[in-house]
Design brief:
The protein has 1 helix and 14 strands. With 254 residues, it is of the alpha+beta class. The radius of gyration is 40 Å and the shape is elongated.
Length: 254
C-alpha cells in the first residue's frame, strides 16, 4: 500500500489525496469526475486486493481506485440504481474479505467481494425502518460484529458473524493489545507533560531565586551607600565637635 490518505468525492470532481508525511494535498491526480452532487460518501481500503472502494451515495456504481497506479473505475461495480442517498459509509472486513456499506436510504446493506468484483444487495435486507436509516459503518474484530451508526433509525445496526472462536480469539487479543498500547501512549504523553511542568516549575524557582539574589545585592548596595553617607555625616559632625574651642573654667565668654 502507499502512504497516502484518500477522501471520496461527494460533490468535488476529484479525489482528495493527502501525503501525511509532507502535509501536501493533491486534487489533480484522481480528477475528471462529473460535478454533480452527492456522488460517493465514505471510502475503505481492501488489503486483499490493494484497492480502495467508495460507497455510492447517489452514483449508480462503486468507485474503485488503484492507489499505486492512480487509476479509477466507476463502471465495473455498476447497476446499483440512480436513486439518491443509497449508501453512506463503507468498511472492509478482512475476516470475510468483504466490504460493507451502510444503508442510508437503501433497504439493504451493500456487500462487495473485492476478489470477484461482485456486489450483493439482497442478503442483508433491512426493511421497515424508515426513509433515512444509518450512516457510517465499522467492524469490531473482538466481537466479529459490524456496527452502523443510526441517522434516523432508533438503534444501531449490528451484523454479527458466526465464526470459529479460535479465529476470533487472536483478533480479540490484538484489539486488547491495541487498547493497552493506546493507554501506554496516553500515559507517556501525560508523563512528558508532567516532566515539562516540573521543568517549568524548576525554571520558575531558579528565576525567582535569581531575582531574590539580585534584590539582595541591590539592598546590600543601598545599605553600603547608606553606611557611606552615615560615615560622611559622622565625619562632619566629628569635625565640628573636634574643632569646637576649649575654654578654661570661668573663662568662657557669655
Amino acid at each position: 500500500s502507499v502512504d497516502m490518505l484518500f477522501a471520496a468525492p461527494q460533490n468535488a470532481d476529484a479525489v482528495l489525496m493527502i501525503n501525511p508525511r509532507t502535509n501536501v494535498t493533491d486534487t489533480t491526480a484522481l480528477s475528471g469526475f462529473v460535478t454533480t452532487s452527492d456522488k460517493w460518501l465514505g471510502i475503505a481500503y481492501a488489503s486483499s486486493v490493494d484497492m480502495l472502494y467508495a460507497a455510492p451515495y447517489s452514483a449508480d456504481a462503486v468507485l474503485m481506485i488503484n492507489p499505486r497506479t492512480n487509476v479509477t473505475d466507476f463502471t465495473t461495480l455498476g447497476g446499483l440504481g440512480t436513486g439518491a442517498g443509497k449508501w453512506m459509509g463503507i468498511t472492509y472486513v478482512a475476516l470475510t474479505d468483504t466490504l460493507f456499506a451502510a444503508p442510508f436510504v437503501a433497504d439493504t446493506v451493500l456487500m462487495i467481494n473485492p476478489r470477484t468484483n461482485a456486489t450483493d444487495i439482497t442478503t442483508l435486507a433491512v426493511t421497515g425502518v424508515g426513509a433515512t436509516k444509518w450512516m457510517d459503518i465499522a467492524f469490531a474484530p473482538s466481537s466479529a460484529t459490524l456496527f452502523a451508526a443510526p441517522f434516523d433509525a432508533d438503534s444501531a445496526l449490528t451484523v454479527r458473524f458466526t465464526v470459529d472462536q479460535s479465529v476470533v480469539a487472536p483478533l480479540r487479543q490484538i484489539s486488547e493489545l491495541t487498547n493497552q498500547l493506546s493507554s501506554l501512549q496516553n500515559d507517556l504523553v501525560a508523563s512528558e507533560a508532567i516532566h515539562v511542568s516540573d521543568q517549568q516549575s524548576t525554571n520558575a524557582a531558579l528565576l525567582s531565586s535569581q531575582v531574590a539574589r539580585l534584590s539582595l545585592q541591590a539592598s546590600l548596595s543601598s545599605s553600603d551607600a547608606a553606611q557611606s553617607a552615615m560615615r560622611a555625616e559622622l565625619s562632619t559632625v566629628g569635625d565640628t565637635v573636634c574643632n569646637r574651642p576649649v575654654y578654661a573654667a570661668g573663662t568662657r565668654p557669655e
